[in-house]
Amino acid sequence: MIDLTPAGVRKYLNAHGHAFQYAVIRRCYELTQNGRSEWTFVAAEVPVGLQNTIHIDFVLRSRDTRVYLVAECKRADPARANWCFVKAPYTRRNARGNELVFQEVEYGQRETVSKPREVAAGIENCHLGFELRTASSGEGTSGGGSAIKDATNQVLRALNGLVDHLFPSANAIGGHSGSIFFLPVIFTTATLWVAEGDLSAADLATGRLPEDWGTLKKVEYLWFNHNQSPALRHQLPYYLETSAPGVSDLSRTLHAEYTRSIYIVGSNGIDSFFKAGLVDWLTP
């Protein structure tokens, strides 16, 4: 129960992350106004989806209108505000090191299709994420679930919902043609860590890693590759280049349809993120 006082309202807004969300938007706006960011604010609390409507925390757009940034803001419970990520040594057949996969939609006079956009990461990409305890007291806002999983599902549901909103069908769009890219980003107050080590080094008899396994590195941001569930996916047909007509395999289909790369940004990395020149890197 929240007390009907300014302190009570402030406690509620802090705990549920509303204040953090608008503080991130404000910082983005300030950097754009100062010419230090390539992103333009579009809208906050954008509703997407039909039967299961959700609200995107906010949407940004690149100056050339070719990239939409879909943002999810997650204020971490102070008791579980250490977010740790690990790189998986095996993801799919013929995977490339540090590969990233983004959602691209190619539209034209005949058809609109979904395509994977592959880019090599400049920093380590990770595949597993989990929360570790801190020395702080909790606020009871985590609900016992995984904040990383919740934020990941939310930002991908939002991204796919925006795709369906902008491209409700695969029909031609007014004679125009081009490509639009979608970049999912999670902004969080959590401290981000990367555990560096080979997960496959575990002992087969015990399933345990050796005592001297791995090192921990604190980072401002990182790439997180996630295989989204079919329930989150948008409705557009996808286009997958094949070596022969009708030829595909599970590895490539998983990669094209379901693997998506998410940028996770800690509060100490927000300025660096907005000034990073991601648009030119993503759309050469």
Low-confidence stretches: 243-247
Task: Let me know the number of strands.
Answer: 13
* Strand composition percent: 25-35%
Mind summarizing the main beta sheet? 9 strands, mixed
Quickly count the helices: 6
Distance between the termini: 52 Å
Given the C-alpha coordinates, what overall shape results? globular
Overall radius of gyration = 20 Å
* Class computed from helices, strands and strand pairing: alpha/beta
- Please bin the fraction of helical residues: 10-25%
Order of helices and strands: HHEEEEEEEEHEEEEHEHH
Describe the structure.
It is a single chain. The chain is an alpha/beta fold and 284 residues long. The protein has one domain. The chain is 23% helix and 33% strand. The protein is built from six helices and 13 strands. The strands form two sheets. Strands 1, 2, 3, 5, 6, 7, 9, 12 and 13 form a nine-stranded mixed beta sheet that branches. About 2% of the residues have low confidence.
Short key terms for the protein model shown above:
single chain, 284 residues, alpha/beta, four-stranded mixed beta sheet, 23% helix, globular
Structure summarized in a few sentences:
The protein is of the alpha/beta class and 284 residues long.
